[in-house]
Amino acid sequence: MRILMENIHKAFGANKVLEGVDFELEPGEIHALMGENGAGKSTLMNILTGLFHQDQGKITIDGKETVFSDSKQAEEAGLAFIRQELNIWPQMTVLENLFIGKEKRNALGVLKEKEMKTLAEGVFKRLNISIPLNKEAGTCSVGEQQMIEIAKALMLDAEVIIMDEPTAALTDREIRLLFQIMKELTATGVSLVYISHRMEEIFEICDRITVMRDGVSVATSFIKDTSFDEIVKQMVGRELEDRYPERNPKYGETVMEVNGLTREGVFEDIHFSIKEGEILGISGLMGAGRTEIMRALFGIDPYDRGEIIMNGNPISIKNPSSAAKQGLAFITEDRKDEGLVLDFSIRENIALTNLESFAPNGVVKAKDEKQFVKMMVERLKVKMESQETKAGNLSGGNQQKVVIAKWVGTSPKVLIMDEPTRGIDVGAKREIYNLMNELTERGLAIIMVSSDLPEVLGMSDRILVIHEGKISGELVREEATQEKIMTFATGGN
Amino acid sequence: MKTAKLSTIWNKFLPLLALVGLIVVVTILNPSFMDPANIMNLLRQISINGLIAFGMTFVILTGGIDLSVGSILALTSALSAGMMVAGIDPILAIIIGTILGAVFGALNGVLIAKGKLAPFIVTLATMTIFRGLTLVYTGGKPITGLGDSYAFQLFGKGYFLGIPVPAVTMILAFIVLWFMLHKMAFGRKTYALGGNEKAALISGIKVDRVKVLIYSISGMMAGLAGMILTSRLNSAQPTAGQAYEMDAIAAVVIGGTSLAGGKGRIAGTFIGVLIIGILNNAMNLLGISSFYQQVVKGVVILIAVLIDRKRS
Q1: Whole-prediction pTM
Q2: B151 lies within 8 A of chain A by CB
Q3: Domain enclosing residue B96, as ranges
């Protein structure tokens, strides 16, 4: 299948995500799509596979202009999109997962188990993998789950498979296996779009690369004609320093110390300390246990043993309420599901963490509340019609500011930010970075979990890298590089 | 924006408009509906469902349900009647009965919050348990001989400034609960819990404690309703309050509160209680068989839910 996408534009409301992207895909090639978070890679692929429709530009497949009305149609045409969040039903078996929604059945609706089994075995053989078909999918490793997704795509006779960060959570061995399978697929004429942040892998496995930046395609080149440096230049377009405000940290006393924090099977022997005014970055691969550690610190999830010390005093954290009382604040990675009550107004959301302060005897003092919220939204530059606007109607960046306002308003000593800029636009990102600087200048300590490596490097004073639930490395700002972090994150030395 | 605001106003007042429309139609069909005597009668009739439905509003706002209210009503009624027979001061017995309602409700709340169980299942079970305990305690027979304390008689049958005392009790309860829901931190937490429980927890709200309190309120209102019924009947009936939870849930839903939680108002519930009460009262006045009354009530609930679906 030969695909040509020309001058693709797409905006979500006022937020222009794509502003003229060209992309082409030849049969049997592996084409890398690279760019920073928010460059528009996923949006482009979602347009290709029919989930969104471009505002402008055209898509030609095998010489014919094509518009898919939905993703199902694209799937039927032979385009499969394997997303980063895998589409696995954990309680069902591998076989059931392979045929979900496409079960083979006879005229009476009875499932044809044997036929499905034979088909599945055939595909697994082609992929040279051996996962028991009756295994519960949730008990498979992430690598195996990815293989299930690839098998699913092949069973639909996909000619184009798009993979979004397929190796992010894989072990080295699983990555080797994946690459082998990818090579075999291309030999049979399947083409692959490979979205990744990992330069080494791209140079190892891909034939061509298209770099995107801020919603435009910068260049498409053959891998053999380009270099690491050139790609980085195309990707960043400007120097790294420009995107992050300068940090001049002044450290005060140690505010928090964590010793031997362990939750069996999730994380083990986590120890670190953080000073007033410091930003401690937490890096690591998806699924390494970063978020789980933070959730335990804030009392959302339990921990089995370990010690948490605030200002020299050991404290016990039983639930978020007690964590907040001890001066902790937590900005969750999932603002829609955990950070906000979407049906609540901006005012009600910001007030939620501070109810005790303007309802000292249980009765909410409406005037105090309004005034407090006014102060917070001004400080965070929340763009809104009024305090009464529903949080659900705000853009991602403004929603995130409301979540931050909620917690900054409690005057915490340690602010935990889990993926503080995920899914928000560049301008709002910059504002959040500036705010982080302002807060640390006033002596707040920030623990920042982020999957965005440039962000970790650009904002952290010190970086802890987590690998499989353990701290695998610690780097100070000056010595940290993407390569060093990735080495620690993948368990290397 | 203008139209959005207009539609919210429309949504807010839809139950009220329905109520006014109903009153107009009923008055045209039978002018005696507006007789002061009938209005007072109506207010007394709705007071028990009103109290239970107000408590139920809190529960439903959190996305929960309380099926045990009818059984709590019967059990508290039986226990307080038993106290009176044993010679305890009737007013004290009423107070203890109401508090016991709160305790039974708290038991629901603890099972739901700490046991992480579904409200439907917990209250289905306690509905059966409380009913069973009532039958055990009463031996399946009414408890009578509660004495002739004037204050006790007044509680269910008396008048205060020409208004039936049960209606006064209901209105006072409404004012207190309205204030709690709309003016106090507790109310805000109730809505937050229904809107997004995870976000509420992570915002440092003691979700478990709020839940226990909410089911206690529901139980307490059922207990209070039980006291009114005991006084009105001057006895405790082992089968009292059966299916009362259904009328209460119906009133909450007709009043525009979403069963999914997070959205709704207690004033809407009051209107829902009035609508159900007027339907019953008017159909009695018009001589419509009580069998048909049930059909009509069911249809009204369906219409209310359909409108609610359209709105969201």
Answers
A1: 0.77
A2: no
A3: 47-247+254-264
